[in-house]
Amino acid sequence: MEAQIIEEFKQNAIYRLDESTRMIKRALSEIGEAGVWVRPNHVSNSIGNLILHLCGNIGQYAIASLGELPDDRDRDAEFNAMEGLVKDELFEKLDEIVNKAKATIQYATAEQLTKKREVQGFTFSGIGIVMHVVEHYSYHTGQIAFWVKQLVAKDLGFYDGVDLNIKNKN
């Protein structure tokens, strides 16, 4: 039963990561290159900054910490960037990091998922790390979607063709 619960947890985490990736890809398809590095104001981040930040955070938490690899993150650089990678390069970088994280999660052992470790000054088990990665990715996916909607004044159609009014079945 424990192995079944662990597998269910991993599959749901991976599904959530895939959903955020799908939504970011869809959002990016609606903007031009100029929109990638636009900041709404001096205290906010551009879409490019958010994607770099997601790459750094997912790499630090899921790949380095859960995967027990060296942590080489430069967090300040994620937010200081004002230009650089184009839209396709940013998405490819994100997709590559997310795929590495998904593989790390998929192959994590029960011991890795329950082991406590320090990440960014916080103490988490491997399960806590996975939850953080999924939650953090989803949070910034929402920010990216909101900012794209502001730039293009258009619904992004994340759930086109899906009836979201269907009632739950027990």
UniProtKB/TrEMBL annotation:
Pfam families tied to this protein: DUF1572 (PF07609)
Taxonomic superkingdom: Bacteria
UniProt-recorded name of the protein: DinB family protein
Source organism of this protein record: Sungkyunkwania multivorans
